[in-house]
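Page 42, continued from yesterday. The earlier attempt failed because a stray header line got pasted into the input along with the sequence. Redoing it now with the clean sequence only.
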Amino acid sequence: MTKNTSRFLIAGLLIAWFVDFLFYKKPFGIAFTLWVVIAVAALFIISYLEKVKPHWLSFVLAGVAIALSSASFLHMEPFTQTISALASLALLMLLTITFRDGHWPYFRLLDYVLRGLKWLLTIISRSWPVIFQGQKKNNQEENSDNIETKPQNKRAVWSILRGLLLSIPILLVLASLLASADPIFEKGLNDFFKIFQIENVAEYIFRLVNILLMGYLFIGVLIQAIHPKNQEPRPQPNQPSFSKFLGSLEAKIVFISINLLFAAFLIIQFRYFFGGQANISETGFTYSEYARRGFGEIITVAVLSLLIYYGFHSITRLESPNQKRWFTGLSILVFLQVLVMLVSSYQRLVLYEQAYGFSRLRTYSHLFLPWLAVLIIIVIVLELLQRQGHLAFTIIAVAASFVVTCIAFNIDGFIAKQNIQRATLSEQEGYALDFYYISELSSDAVPVILDSYLAGNSSTNDLLGANLSCRWNEIQKQETHPWQSFNISRTKSVNLLHQYQLEWQQYSIHQDESRADDYVLVDGEKYFCAINANWID
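This time it went through. Structure tokens are written below.
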């Protein structure tokens, strides 16, 4: 049982109120990191007050969750912001599930799913008795320690609240009558109510309901984290989650079939793709067409291979050492062939980029492929060591590493740099700078674009200047962002464009009356700025 339910009530409502205060009608920014810090601090402070000692791994999870949330104010690139925020929230959820026992490194994949569903149902049920019955129980407990003072103090607080609620409608009626009786008093009353913007009462009610609903959930989260309903035993990761039912022969046939299919595919790869452009041309494909067609499919095959391996390992009976050796050998052979496919996939990606330039999706894939290969190598090691139960922890660690890589890597800046260099160094091959794609990039790309512009290369300089002029024009139209939306990348870009604002005067902004869009003239050609309207949000 909780020792002081009022702590949980106040903390849960405060966390919910901060959601409204930091995020309602505000662009994404530093507010998310602040909210994560507030939520983590509330959890640990209440834990200290309740004299509950968290597991040391909970401090690790809290630190990583806060670190991952930093992308909200470090970058403007949407994918990085999204996956970092989702990863941070997932770790916060894991933190509250295993706050006291720290069992999360020992969870199997099924444990994560079952514990997550159970946690969700539990937090919904834990809040109700605390909110509606906790006051009575607390008073009874406190009576045994101090019969005279504490119950009287708490009764006084509730009496004050009830008195305020009763007085509000009475005051409204009497004030309306007095306002009708005296125009000066009516004017003063109207001025007073303008402070509260009564015309927005529907919005206030909506926000209040949201705060109460979120507060209800957060109260349950805090209670379940600090005073869990049941203490779960630590899972044994190398023990099966359920009884295995598939025979080893069936699994052997499946893995032999997969290996034969993969081997046939790799023979084609070595004959054509690894063999060079001349061999591919014999089949009627261009090098770039051949590269573009297979990249996504190979990534999908690699992910499916991991799922197939985990699924068959979970359901296959391996009762003798010989059966285990067969399963290990065949599964490792599958993964070795998958690694060769990933090398092929990486080459396909490079060829595709050479033909069409860099994009966000291609850059995400650049960062994802090495981590996918690392995951497969670790899975091979776990299979050799017969520690397959740690696959879930491995996936979480690799996924977190991928998110950290995205945060540390300026994706939009990298794309801008590569595409500008490609257009500058490959003029003889007919590669032009895509003005509109550069315009779609966030403010993370502005320092790179500005550096390239100041370098003064004639082939791309005017397009880069026009792009920066469009961005500066959009800044003039933007309303001031609240402090909750502060972002380092956006602020740095605005300061840089302001510093060189005289440069943008030579790229005058015009308006196309037929489209009502702004544009810049470069060598007599119109380049519209409208596609760039949301780069700063």
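Notes: Residues 519 and 528 are 4 Å apart (CA to CA).
Reminder to self: strip header lines before submitting.
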